[in-house]
Amino acid sequence: xxxxENIPYDELEVGRSACxxxxxxxxxxxxFAKISxxxxxxxLDEEFARDTLFGGRIAHGMWTGxxxxxxxxxxxPGPGTIYLEQNLQFxxxxxxxDEITVQLTVSAKLDDxxxxxxxxxxxxxxxxxxxxxxxxxxxxxxxxxRLEKPELPMITIG
Amino acid sequence: xxxxENIPYDELEVGRSACxxxxxxxxxxxxFAKISxxxxxxxLDEEFARDTLFGGRIAHGMWTGxxxxxxxxxxxPGPGTIYLEQNLQFxxxxxxxDEITVQLTVSAKLDDxxxxxxxxxxxxxxxxxxxxxxxxxxxxxxxxxRLEKPELPMITIG
Lengths: 158, 158
Known about the structure:
2 copies of one chain form a homodimer. By secondary structure, the first copy, chain A, is α+β, with helices and mostly antiparallel strands. The first copy, chain A, has one domain: Roll (Thiol Ester Dehydrase, Chain A), CATH 3.10.129.10. Chain A is 22% helix and 36% strand. In chain A, the strands form 2 sheets. A 5-stranded antiparallel sheet of chain A has the order 2-4-5-6-3, with helices on one face. A two-stranded antiparallel ribbon of chain A has the order 1-7. In chain A, a hairpin with a 4-residue loop joins strand 4 and strand 5. Strand 8 of chain A pairs antiparallel with strand 8 of chain B.
């Protein structure tokens, strides 16, 4: 059984850093279109996408945002965190087969009473190219939490 | 057949506004966990979530972000838009069964040569409660485009 463990506010130090990686599959493009409602063919139709300036299908930019949010929610600070704000700059396309790595770094402890924390967010692909960056503001958990990672059900497309 | 039509840069006027609505299903919680990697039980396990301060399962905050991105990409400016930046403030939880409506408003035409446009983004639930807000910066399309909306394949969970 896999577990997620958080880092409570009192244990967070400026400069503390953590990484979270995720690969993009062709199925993810379909699933993201489904849940967001963004059915643009640049994400779904290889033939159409080949004739765009991207030269092939690319991820929805906010897929990268969703992986940043997963890093915040599962790793730093992890379970019990409440997401307050996120700024994102989309720099380069992400393509099926790419693996992106989110690096989060605690940039400031903003408010000890409210437990507000600022996180620097940098996302690189497997070639070390910066694909997105930004800053998050979160309400960090007060208490240590260790949770079993739920198993997701099977998802079938088509 | 449904179509998506964009609004090219030259036709965009400050104050122009458009809406895009999407309902959150229980399946969406599973699919968002799958594609993002955020498997926190507050999104997946009703029994666990009932004992949190939210009192039940809630959407991943970035699901709302993904619906904003869909509004930008399919409605205003629509197909051909390149997403540059997004700032998000998460205000209130969104729950399965909720329908959210993204209202986008052109707040500035920032650069005629680069076709950069700023959009104000406000997201309300079916009760009129503001659940998220923010600003987007996009590169608007130069040319009118009208595209068939691709049909998504069937997605089965479990």
